[in-house]
Amino acid sequence: MPTNNTPFLTIFLLFLGLFRFDSFPGLEAATGKLASIPGLYVFGDSLVDAGNNNHLPISISKANYPHNGVDFPNKKPTGRFCNGKNAADAIAEKFGLPLPPPYLSLRGLLKREKRKSAAVTGVNFASGGAGIFNSTDQKLGQGIPLSEQVNNWLSIHEELMKLEPSEAQIHLSKSLFTVVIGSNDLFDYFGKFELRQQSKPEEYTKLMADKLKEQLKRIHESGARRFLIIGVAQIGCTPGKRAKNSTIHECDEEANLSCSLYNEALVKMLQQLKQELQGSMTYTYFDNYKSLHDIISNPARYGFADVTSACCGNGKLNADLPCLPLAKLCSDRTKYLFWDRYGHPTEAAARTIVDLMLTDDSHYSSPITLTQLVST
């Protein structure tokens, strides 16, 4: 640590703030630009995994092979379930931050300096196949469930606390903690007969929200104050679900209903949690269900031509098989909503959804918008 009167972290954060303010276009706020944040910390599943699963020894839930990454810099398959950058990357870029590296890529003595740097600007803890419940990662061999992701965050938190304590607390309070999880728990519910026997959809989705609440409280206890919580989208409208309807390829409305039930339970839980924490937690909930519905209902408005098929795959709706190296690849990825049969968005779709998160219109966000959250 520096011994002069200006802590290193203060200088570093000031530099980042000035650099971001001058170098990227933001949405309208009090300053005329998108307010800056010092760090971005990401928890979730394959929708935002930046390559954590690449470092798991036996997991088959990986995307470290073509055609994944075909539009990423240098056409590199990084472990993102996407043709390019995902929503977590798009959020980081909007705020002028480096792409948060996968937590598991920061382990080891040779990564010490990289880990220190990432601890300040942001880390991605998300894992393909992960769920709120610890059981959901078992279906595909291995993943990092949310509880373990929070454990990993606490390891990074220790790194931050080696800095000047008051500056570290300010940093934590101004950083953005993003949570994108729940789809795999719902896929798990429909895929396991015993789960459906044990509880009705209303009961199961409430249990999901209650379990998520436990993990959010752990993150909050570490000093986090600003949260972006993203609801579950219409998993019944993924290409894989549509392809099972062999006639007209409609959405699976039973699956969509469970998504709605979970999102309702999630919104209530967040309201209760904020009351319990006496307002020390500030959050925005993004209605991903509504955003996807609007895109599917009027694709041309958002620049898409195909909102039912997978860009990468085989068979009906290009959704009979996963996106493997021998799969058929669409020629124009910017016109497809879905990358693969599982419903991962293309980079174009991820960027569209992030743009909706950052609009000043509260149509998709409550109780405040993301721009309002980062400006408080």
Automatic annotation (TrEMBL):
A biological process from GO: lipid catabolic process
Q: Which InterPro entries match?
A: GDSL (IPR001087), GDSL_Est/Lipase (IPR051058), Lipase_GDSL_AS (IPR008265), SGNH_hydro_sf (IPR036514), SGNH_plant_lipase-like (IPR035669)
Q: Which GO terms describe its molecular function?
A: lipase activity
Which UniProt keywords are present, listed alphabetically? Hydrolase, Lipid degradation, Lipid metabolism, Signal
**A Pfam family of this chain:** Lipase_GDSL
The positions making up the signal sequence are 1-23
| Family per similarity comment | Belongs to the 'GDSL' lipolytic enzyme family.
Q: What is this protein's name?
A: GDSL esterase/lipase At5g55050-like
